[in-house]
Amino acid sequence: MEKSVFTRIMEQEIPARFEYEDDQVIVIHDIAPKAPIHLLIIPRKPIPTLMDVSEEDLPLIGHIHQVAQMLAKKLEVKGFRIVNNCGKEGGQEVFHLHYHFLAGFQQE
Ligand code: AMP
Q1: Does 5 sit in the ligand 1 pocket, CB within 6 Å?
Q2: Pocket test for ligand 1, best of 3, 4, 5, 51 (most atoms within 8 A of CB)
Q3: pTM for this one?
Q4: Contact criterion met (CB below 8 Å) for 102 and 38
Q5: Domain holding 87: CATH number?
Q6: Which of 19, 41, 82, 93 is spaced 20 to 30 A from 50 at the CA atom?
Q7: Model pLDDT for residues 35-51, shown as the tens digit of each residue
Q8: Residue 23 falls within a domain, yes or no?
Q9: Is residue 108 part of a domain?
């Protein structure tokens, strides 16, 4: 299978603005932000879509939630939105599992 753009970022073939990384995930700033803070939480494991997540990946999915909490504290945001686009019909463009972390929306 061809390497995804995100794997190429992990392998430093393509530059990106990193916010965080550990042995399981990287967090980068989206190149085309849709919110004042728009990060992508990306597992190092190249799982194509949410529909390909298996039981053995569930600790990784839990870890992604912990990373989201950590990001909210680090960036001092009180609220955020997590989005996963799954499949072409779900608007997914990069077929390497990732979660959008969107924050910094205007308060009413
Ligand atoms: P999705 O539609 O959920 O697959 O989202 C893919 C996201 O990846 C989009 O928001 C893109 O702007 C973002 N993206 C694509 N290429 C890059 C890149 N090289 N660096 C950072 N973000 C990227």
Answers
A1: yes
A2: 5
A3: 0.97
A4: yes
A5: 3.30.428.10
A6: 19
A7: 999 999 999 999 999 99
A8: yes
A9: no
